[in-house]
TrEMBL record:
It comes from Leptospira ellisii. It is found in: Cytoplasm. It catalyses: L-threonine + hydrogencarbonate + ATP = L-threonylcarbamoyladenylate + diphosphate + H2O. PROSITE patterns: YRDC. The lineage of its organism: Bacteria, Pseudomonadati, Spirochaetota, Spirochaetia, Leptospirales. It holds the Pfam family Sua5_C. Belongs to the SUA5 family. Its EC number is 2.7.7.87. ATP binds at residues 56, 60, 112, 138, 146, 190, 234. InterPro entries: DHBP_synth_RibB-like_a/b_dom (IPR017945), Sua5-like_dom (IPR006070), Sua5/YwlC_C (IPR038385), Sua5_C (IPR005145), T(6)A37_SUA5 (IPR010923), TC-AMP_synthase_SUA5 (IPR050156). Keywords: ATP-binding, Cytoplasm, Nucleotide-binding, Nucleotidyltransferase, Transferase, tRNA processing. One of its GO terms (biological process) is tRNA processing. This is Threonylcarbamoyl-AMP synthase. One of its GO terms (molecular function) is double-stranded RNA binding. L-threonine binds at residues 33, 65, 116, 136, 176.
Length: 319
């Protein structure tokens, strides 16, 4: 991992951040889902620095962030299905996997490319000014929870990247929905805010990868559809417990959910699954900061967000 020796510029100016990116720098920026750590996708050396800073396995490819649909079409071959999905839900928290069109893009050796168009106003302006695809995984150390608050970004990345672009914190709170459009039938690879019902409203048919068990893709011998699925993910240091109810939470544990039975040293009371998505990662990060041993998570409600939340909590609980 890189040491804390880089001069980090903290800025509110998308222009300044874009200039730093175009001169080969790493820029942490907010998106509507989680913070990203970005480099120009046309600059292989800069992209490789992301792996160093995050301590990310070299074969786990990055999502490219672009300003609009025309730029997306320059990166990958966009099918009719993909077009329908992107016209309905983008700009927004949806990522497509496509056959790569531009050979100069950094894709960790793959002939496919993941692309999304963020709706976050600061990210959108930064991408418009940079005017190149920006390769950006979530801004967190590999295997750790994604980051959704600027204070945690400053703690984790100040001194490690060239620039931190400040803007409103993410409002969605979990990573984008990832759909592969490479084969005949689209496949939902990573659940997110955009859910099955949304996809059903625009796609005649699609498949859902059972990604709840991160070990499935490797141990089953099924080819790994999305390399990121085989790695440990989203996990804080504390033990994560998914429970039907919070009735039996031990005295020293933390709790997040809809109904509390007793007060605990750290807790987040939720009103909806949307709240849950927005709070989950900061709950995990805060549990670690407070050196809490167990983080109890109530099972999410039916409806939007349930699959995505279960996916993230189950992965965190497994590691
Ligand atoms: O919301 C998000 O998507 C955030 C923000 C920053 O945009 N980004 C994010 O990136 O979550 P990351 O790298 O943490 O997750 C990207 C996922 C990984 O599981 C990776 O393996 C997969 O997308 N991926 C990237 N390129 C791929 C490709 N060509 N084929 C299949 N999967 C790919
Ligand atoms: Mg990530």
């Amino acid at each position: 991992m890189r040491e804390n020796k880089v001069d980090t510029i903290l800025t509110d100016s998308p222009r300044e951040a874009a200039d730093i990116l175009l001169s080969g720098g790493l820029v942490v920026f907010p998106t509507e889902t989680v913070y990203g750590i970005g480099a120009s996708a046309l600059d292989e050396a800069a992209c490789k620095k992301i792996y160093e800073v995050k301590n990310r396995p070299a074969d786990n490819p990055l999502i490219l962030h672009v300003k609009d649909l025309d730029s997306l079409r320059e990166c990958g071959a966009v099918s009719e299905d993909a077009l329908r999905v992107f016209k309905s839900f983008s700009p927004g928290p949806i990522t497509g996997i496509f056959r790569k069109k531009n050979r100069d893009l950094f894709t960790a050796g793959l002939d496919t490319v993941a692309v999304r168009i963020p709706s976050h106003p600061t990210a959108a302006e930064f991408l418009r000014l940079a005017n190149v695809p920006v390769a950006a995984p979530s801004a967190n150390l590999s295997g750790r929870p994604s980051i959704t608050k600027i204070e945690y970004i400053l703690e984790e990345f100040f001194g490690k990247v060239d620039c931190i672009l400040r803007g409103p914190d993410p409002t969605i709170g979990i990573e984008s929905t990832v759909v592969s459009f490479v084969g005949q039938t689209p496949i939902l690879l990573r659940p997110g805010w955009i859910d099955e019902a949304d996809l059903k409203s625009v796609l005649a048919t699609f498949e859902i990868l059972n990604a709840t068990d991160p070990a499935t893709p490797i141990e089953s011998g099924i080819p790994v559809l999305s390399p990121g699925l085989k790695y440990r993910h989203y996990a804080p240091s504390c033990k994560v417990i998914l429970a039907d109810s919070l009735a039996n939470v031990p005295k020293e544990a933390a709790q997040i959910g809809f109904t509390f039975f007793e007060t605990r040293p750290f807790q987040i009371l939720l009103g909806s699954n949307e709240d849950y998505m927005r709070s989950l990662y900061s709950f995990f990060v805060e549990c670690d900061r407070r050196k809490i041993g167990e983080a109890w998570c109530e099972i999410p409600r039916e409806g939007r967000g349930k699959r995505a939340l279960l996916n993230r909590i189950t992965k965190a609980a497994q590691s």
